[in-house]
Design goal:
Helices cover about 25% and strands about 40% of the residues. The strands form three sheets. Strands 5, 6, 7, 8 and 9 form a five-stranded antiparallel beta sheet that branches. Strands 2-3-1-4 form a four-stranded antiparallel beta sheet, with helices on one face.
Length: about 180
């Protein structure tokens, strides 16, 4: 079975009451499947950035962007190519751990660079931030111990920065990265 493909949209919107509800409602009315949705204030006062991961199977990119631009609060939409963007997600998980297995779970946490947030006699709460695939792997390994609760934030993403390169004379020249 192949991995589903997704469009990653970064939508800059005016930070007003009800904007997120209108965006989510637009997707629901059109039958578009939202795989992930994250929203927070952006770099400009009064603006928010919504990162939406949309299932390619449920909607064409052109159709999605046309519908989004119909919303008056939408200022800018960028599609982020996963090959040319930086993506992160946060996972919080409480895992059931018997005292004799605790060192194994702590070793997994160390390997994945996860943080221990809380400790009880029979459970640990851990956090891990990273690429979605890394979180998937960590979650799968912890499932063997018994996941009590799990929460993921959804993806946030930005275009990769332009990378400096040296020309033949050893001077820095800039090659612009793709930013959807």
């Amino acid at each position: 079975m192949t991995e589903p493909q997704h469009h990653i949209l970064s939508v800059l919107v005016q930070n007003r009451p009800g904007v997120l509800a209108r965006v989510a409602g637009l997707f629901a009315r059109r039958g578009f499947n939202i795989f992930s949705l994250a929203v927070a204030p952006a770099e400009h006062a009064g603006m928010s950035r919504i990162t939406i991961v949309v299932d390619v199977e449920s909607a064409s990119l052109e159709q999605v962007t046309k519908q989004l631009f119909k919303l008056i609060e939408v200022v800018k939409i960028s599609e982020l190519d996963p090959r040319h963007s930086v993506e992160r997600e946060l996972l919080l998980v409480t895992v059931r751990v018997a005292p004799d297995e605790r060192s194994q779970v702590l070793e997994l946490a160390t390997i994945f660079d996860a943080k221990v947030l809380a400790v009880a006699l029979e459970a640990l709460t851990l956090s891990l931030a990273g690429q979605p695939e890394k979180l998937d792997d960590f979650e799968q390994l912890l499932a063997a111990y018994g996941i009590v609760e799990l929460q993921r934030t959804g993806r946030v993403a930005l275009p990769k920065l332009a990378q400096p390169h040296l020309d033949k004379q050893g001077r820095v020249r800039t090659i612009k990265g793709r930013a959807g």
